[in-house]
Amino acid sequence: MSYKIVQPNHPQSLFQQSAQLDKTRNTAILIRQSRRGSDKTHIEGRMLQESLIPFVQLAREEETLEHIHIFDEGSGVSGTKGVDRRKKLKSMMEEMVDNLIGDIVLARPDRLFRDKHFSNVSAFTELAEKMKVKVIVPKERGVLVYDFTKYEDLKEFQRAMQEAYAYIDTQIGYMNRARAFKVAKGYYGGGNIILPYVLLRDMPKEQQVIVVYDPWKEQALDLFTKFQEFNFQTSRLARYIEEKPYLFKCMDESHLEEYQVVTTMSKANGGYTIATMESLRRYLKNLTLAGFVKAGKEVATGEIILIPNVIDAVVPLELFDPCFASLTGEHLDGTPFERKRHFKGGANENVDAILHGLLSSDEGDIGVFANADIDYPIYDLRNYNKGGIGKTETLWSIAARPVDRIVLDRLIALAEYDNTLVDRVKQFFAEAHKEGENSLVVLDTAIIKTQEAIQRVGRTIVKLTKGLFDEQGNPIELADNDPNIVEQRNLYMQLRRLQKQRDDAARLSNEDPSASITNFYHVLSHLTTEFHKLPPQTKKDFMRRLIDEVKIQSISPHLFLLHITWIRPLTNERADRTDVALLWRCTPTKSDEVNVWTPEEDDALRALYPNAPQLALMQSIPYKTPGMMKNRAFHLGVRREGKKYDSERFSLTVMYADLEAANLFAKNDKDRNVLWNEINTLSQQAKKGKDTNITALWLFAVDMGSFIQSHNVTDVVTAALSGQARLAT
Amino acid sequence: MSEESSTQPTKHNPSNLSQDARNEKQLSLFFIGLEMLGEKKKARFLLYLLSLKKPDQQNQETKKDEL
């Protein structure tokens, strides 16, 4: 008979005397504060979390931070958010998946999540269990260690997470209810106060009330009156506001002793005004102005409780209500707002512009606009909120079709000279980089857990409504603002965000394009004949997979620079190649310098036009073309004397401003001559018309390999490289 | 006047250019292109060019440097 002696498996206590960290992997520290600005106002909370750094150093017995990864989310990040809205948390979880992290040290478990449905918690614990990552929370006399491979620890952690959410439900909920109660009685409950309301200073803090500051009342009323007069057009009201130096004049010193202004409204020219479209809309929707106060939410239905006549109304309800309804779509009693609106022909959603969403510029945001009637999409450089409230300034526009054609022709040229290109691209995607894969694991786990949470809430909704019918026998549905419906909606939004991030991550991890684009490689092999057959959106997706970055910059009235960084296998697998082209647009960008003749320019034209050489004339009037000068001279009655044609070789559409802009790129006279010649040729080739108004000069040979290995240039290139390569490395 | 004559473009047919002239022009455009890239992209582009050079060519240059 043989015996086997076994030791009883005593469950290890969660609480341990000292932290035994996994030194074969890094230690993560997660720092987070919920309220924006808490890092300054509640510095002790921040300091407590920062004190984890020396704690980990001590536990690891290391002086450097080399193996300590700090994921500092800062302040203003709610624990109710998941990986879809917390980049640092997502990075940490990606490192968990990559087996880089052994322990996560937190000041409190709730620094991770305050999660009602456990979709985020369970995604985290599942990965932590799989990768054997422990959560460590230092306490006064030891540490709490959550080892997720042990079921008891997992249960304890889940309990801690329930407590974390309960804090929001009970503590924060209590504070909100107490505040609502105070506000319902007409007292100031904290936060900003909309003008013309102010606080009375000479009162105990607990009994402070808000009052209307009479000198500002008329102005507030006027805004609503005008809004109604303008047929509820916020843009017209914005222009009206802009014409005034301010809306509410700053108080006199004597009044400031009596009243306190608590506002975030912009201060300018000795008064307060509204500076953005968003704040204008918010102002016109603010129920306080109609004398209402918000007293929390109805727990059962989620409806906001409004109490009328607690404070003095500034705007009568019959004026406020339609303004409110025009912005929210519903009157205060819930009836829908109806108004005839005249929509202009909007942008075609399916606009055929292959660089849509891909083309960018350092000068501002590039949008794509197309009027469906004329089928003429344009890339538009816009500066939002510049030049007025809600105004968008268009700095320049360029026709999309010819730019698209130029880029596509270049791609065809690259593909035609290199018959191994398609195979290289195929191989590149087949051996896809693993960079994005960890992200995919984190997001896939979060997606599954969110879907499970949605199902749980769905089941609750079904149980609540099961067997309920209205008088006509129709099943009763929960109201839109029922807390369960709101939760379900929020979870669906979270799921959509996660799925979108998953799509992006798939692209970053170089998922094979043929998985999402039918016949991708066939089209790439037969670009000339097949590309134009693709639907507009597929064309865009196609280009997106082949181009890393495409940027455009206006450098003069007629000239643009276009930079394209192709994906590596398209040119060379070991380094990035950026192509650069100089684009000529036959119509100059509109500006006063181009459009208007100044008296000085007229004087210069009168003096120089008869005899000066063409270049001297252009230099003296840099924003006018020889063609413009010819017309202006005719108008002024000035004639050119003698034949100058031999030396007048710039085309009638080139400006000196264009040549001067190009000069920046030429390092010597020889290069300048070449460049000016090329610009002249570009200007002659461009013809007014939908598809021919832009011409391009590509600066680099399609086959750069042959170019630099050519005997005539290798030495020169090597000389340039020897100086520059050091800069690059 | 002399400056103008040296900077004025001449009407030409590129196919009429000699091989040398074509090479000169390509080289000029190449250096202009490098300037148009800007410092950051230029540095990366030069690395790309380095990667295009044939290994035996790079070896020869290394030997030259050693000498």
Descriptive notes:
The complex is a heterodimer of chains A (729) and B (67). With 729 residues, chain A is α+β, with helices and mostly antiparallel strands. Chain A has 4 domains: 15-176, Rossmann fold; 197-328, Alpha-Beta Complex (Hect, E3 ligase catalytic domain fold), CATH 3.90.1750; 348-419 and 522-588 and 655-698, no CATH class; 437-509. In chain A, the strands form 6 sheets. Chain A has a 6-stranded mixed beta sheet with strand order 1-6-5-4-2-3, with helices on both faces. The model of chain A is unreliable at 342-349 and 725-729 (pLDDT under 50). Helix content of chain B is 78%, strand content 0%. Chain B is flat and about 35 Å long. The termini of chain B are far apart. Classes of the chains: A alpha+beta (729), B mainly alpha (67).
Distance between the termini of chain A: 73 Å
| Percent of residues in β-strands of chain A | 15-25%
Helix fraction of chain B by DSSP (H/I, runs of at least 4): over 70%
Q: Biggest β-sheet of chain A, characterized?
A: 6 strands, mixed
Oligomeric status = heterodimer
Q: Estimate nothing, just give the exact number of structural domains of chain A.
A: 4
Structural class based on helices, strands and sheet pairing of chain B = mainly alpha
Number of helices of chain A: 27
By secondary-structure content and strand pairing, the structural class of chain A works out as alpha+beta
What is the number of strand segments of chain B? 0
What does the overall shape of chain A look like? Answer: globular
Largest sheet report of chain B: none
Mean pLDDT of chain A: 83
**Poorly predicted tracts of residues of chain A:** 342-349, 725-729
Shape of chain B: flat
- Overall strand count of chain A: 22
Going across the biggest sheet of chain A, name each strand in turn. 1-6-5-4-2-3
Q: How many discrete domains of chain B?
A: 1
Radius of gyration of chain A: 34 Å
